[in-house]
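Researcher: Structure for this, please.
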Amino acid sequence: MNNNKVNKSQKTKSKNKNAKKKMKTWKKVLLVIVLILLIAGGIFAYKVYKNGGGLTGMLATMIGHDENTRKSLGEFQVLLMGVSTDQEGVSLTDTIMVASYNPNTQRAVLLSIPRDSFTGTNVKKAKASDKINAIYNLTKDPMKTVEAVNELTGLDLKYYAIVQTEALIELVDAIGPIEFDVPINMDYDDVTQDLHIHLKAGVQEIDGEKAEQLLRFRHNNNGTSYPADYGDNDIGRMRTQREFITAVIEQTVKLENITKLGSILDIASRNLITNLDFSVLKDYLPYAVEFSTENLLTESLPGSVPDLSQTNNVSIFVVDEEETEQMINELFYPEQLTEEGNTTANNTTNAISNTSSNSNTATTTSKSNIKIEVLNGTSDSKVLQKVVNQLKEEGYNVSRTGTTTSTTRTVIANKKDVSNTIINDIKEVLGTGTVSDSGSGGTSSKVDVTVIIGKDYE
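Model: Predicted structure, token format:
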């Protein structure tokens, strides 16, 4: 009995020793695992930091980017075409728009191409098939439309994306609903297309079905359309399209929607007709979350609508080549214009230097040398004229005016290192304004200051 007790005691001690050894071994393994995790986490955190930190840095790191990836990404450009599919065998492009995004400058452009833009050779013998919106319907080759846009604009677009009605509805529903201010009451019916548009004016939530109505509206059943100061018929429709896309972008890049980007790309890959490589598109997504629509420029190709008697009784839009060249340079190649504007910039700087640094008000001589561009970010055309009059009364040179995407805040963008005295004086004249220092790389090197009128202006 005693021997048995001794043997059991020895076995128990042996088991305890083995258990302690195993415990020590597991502690070592656990310590190694913790160290590995800490090191991996530290490396990941460092990469996030090197990639810019925040959500951008995290997303960029997760998809394998390093600090040089963004620098190597060029400006992304694509031709967007909206095609309605409710008429069998007909694929007219109701919407044609150039979209670009630069991840390094965070600048973006939406440029509308009027659907009636003439692509033929003889205006006097114009045919409906000479309109740019007929090209895809006739050829079923999207690149033919891309080539026509390149011819009209001088751009070198290589990518296209055709958004059919069904894709539009699904995409908006995935992101939305989108809060949008419908500019007018819309009341239109076309039984041949099974198209029924019935929207009330005012701020409201737009789902996929309403988005189709909003973007396709041109005029009411009684023939009325958008008011002239908004841009009637196609001009108004293109403006509404650009402003709605702006609202979609604003909502898409919100933090709570970032998790939806995967499903959005999935919807796009299933529904879009495109030659885009979505793996390439994903490279831009980490940086797109930084984008602000304040850096979005929206325009439409300039031109005119000739009298029907001069165009074989066909309604067409003739693009103005000279104005288009100037617009394209300002929107897409601002860095090339900087050198052209250096002389003007130097003259402006010299004029400003004559102003006393202690003065609270700019001199009349300096003001007259300042070229100001005023862009209306409100829906009220009277506001634009009011601001222009205010600035001119104070002696400033308002050299350019235009409209831009709807914005809440008034922004005063210093494009050519104009003195703080001048900028502050402009702000005082307007009674509001957030100052943005764009430096010599601003969006328009032919002006010294750009004023974007926001809804905060009174």
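Researcher: Any notable elements?
Model: DSSP finds 17 helices and 17 strands in the chain. The longest helix spans residues 2-50.
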